[in-house]
Design goal:
- This protein has 18 helices and two strands.
- With 443 residues, it is mainly alpha-helical.
- The chain folds into two domains: 200 residues, MFS general substrate transporter like domains (Growth Hormone, Chain: A), CATH 1.20.1250.20; 213 residues, Growth Hormone, Chain: A.
- It has a two-stranded antiparallel ribbon.
- A hairpin with a 2-residue loop joins β1 and β2.
- The protein is globular, with a radius of gyration of 22 Å.
- The protein starts with 14 loop residues before the first helix and ends with a helix.
């Protein structure tokens, strides 16, 4: 069946079967890339490298997610069946090969071939699968759910965010029950499971029968021509504020575990991580569904940035991270900041395709969304690393119940994030023009 057609009647014309379910199957699979922290230390120990060296595999995966989305957006635009098949093959092959190179590293500890192989498998090959898989269902969802585009895209992107909460306990159990070689066996087993899930999603995914997708260059406008239908500063504003939201989210989320320990909740780290993942997924669904009721979807970004600034400022003023242990109010503020940032981080992802469609229409939305996801690529290389640099070069390391931590360093990360959140809010207010119902009301 062509991706631009679907048979009428029954399940073949059902928006849940042809859009929502396959989107969840694809996104709940590729979203497990965020489970990296569950097994990164085990990989490092097994192959004989430092955790810092192996961490680059995750950074590369996010970078190639964004860059493959940017460069392969036109393929997604023309043929979602081809793009979803590419996603299925690349993501699961990358996961399986990661297991192969981990196994090799276990018997050849310290061998750079194992580390480079993991970079290529988890970083590059899986990254291409992530980018194409992330994009493939989004436009299809918006076409099937014309009146509730935000709810539809939020549902899929929430699946990406919820994947960590769903898969983490499963992975943890597999690591505990598969023996000393469980780390590479887990990757190979899950590669097969995710291949089945994604391939079913690939087979089901289809656009509505009445949607005509231009198939030749003469019929389809160039991306820059579409972007120039609004002042170019409008798109620049969207791209930069999207980049900032991801960078700030990654900066705080990457330090989340140690921040929770700093305020005396070491025994609750797992619970807080699960709750923050729920807020991440809830923000993706809640903020985007809420935006459907607004005249201008950009209002959601204003709310995200204002909430983030307010709670960051409260924790900065009170010194919540460095002074929080034993103080109920400060612990509440720190946890509130973590949960708000997670929700805003997720909401930023789910709202960007619908915001772009309000500004630039549906004709080239996959390609434009893909280019915009390049912001995710660069944020993946800056958010974690800048936060780690600040923690390593400021404050003072102390021993806290046998754990080395830097409360002042974690606190100092907030100066970086609040400055960027303020810049993002200014861009949101000044550069990004009203769209959707708000723009129509001005005509």
């Amino acid at each position: 069946m062509s991706d631009s057609k679907s048979s009428s009647g029954g399940w073949r014309a059902n928006k849940w079967v042809r859009a929502a379910i396959p989107a969840l199957l694809l996104h709940c699979s590729i979203g497990t890339v965020y489970c990296w922290s569950i097994f990164s230390q085990e990989i490092a120990d097994y192959i004989g490298f430092s955790k810092g060296a192996t961490e680059w595999a995750f950074s590369f995966a996010i970078f190639f997610l964004g860059m493959s989305a940017a460069f392969l957006g036109n393929i997604v635009e023309k043929d979602i069946h081809k793009s979803s098949l590419i996603a299925t093959i690349c993501f699961t092959a990358g996961m399986f090969l990661t297991g192969v190179f981990i196994k090799f590293g276990g018997s050849h500890q310290g061998n750079p071939v194992a580390l480079i192989g993991i970079y290529l498998s988890y970083g590059f090959i899986m990254g291409v699968g992530l980018g194409t898989g992330y994009l493939s269902p989004v436009k299809t969802l918006m076409l099937w759910f014309q009146d509730r585009k935000g709810l539809a895209t939020g549902l899929a992107v929430a699946g990406f965010g919820a994947a960590k909460a769903i898969a983490s306990p499963i992975m943890q159990s597999m690591l505990e029950n598969l023996g000393d070689d469980g780390i590479w066996k887990m990757f190979m087993i899950l590669a097969v499971v995710y291949f089945i899930m994604m391939f079913v999603g690939h087979l089901l995914l289809a656009k509505p029968a009445d949607w005509h997708e231009p198939q030749n260059d003469a019929e389809k406008p160039k991306i820059m021509d579409v972007l120039k239908t609004k002042p170019l500063t409008n798109y620049i504003g969207i791209w930069v504020m999207f980049y900032i939201n991801i960078t700030c989210g990654l900066a705080l989320i990457s330090q989340e575990k140690m921040i929770v320990k700093c305020v005396g909740l070491a025994a609750m780290v797992g619970v807080v991580s699960t709750v923050s993942a729920i807020f991440n997924a809830g923000g993706r669904l809640g903020f985007s569904a809420w935006a459907d009721t607004m005249k201008d979807r950009n209002t959601i970004y204003k709310m995200i940035f204002i909430l983030s600034i307010v709670f960051t400022a409260l924790v900065m003023i009170t010194g919540g991270i460095k002074n929080g242990e034993g103080n109920g109010l400060l612990i509440f503020l720190v946890l509130a900041l973590i949960f708000i940032v997670n929700a805003g981080y997720g909401g930023g992802f789910s709202n960007v395709p619908t915001l772009l469609s309000d500004h630039y229409g549906m004709g080239s939305i996959s390609a434009i969304h893909g280019i915009t996801l390049s912001a995710w690529a660069f944020a993946g290389l800056t958010g974690n690393q800048v936060a780690t640099f600040i923690v390593n070069h400021s404050g003072e390391w102390i021993d806290h119940d046998g754990v080395k931590m830097n409360p002042i360093g974690y606190q100092n990360v907030l100066y970086f994030t609040i400055a960027l959140y303020i810049v993002a809010l200014v861009l949101c207010l000044v550069l990004v023009k009203p769209s959707g119902k708000a723009a129509a009301g001005k005509k």
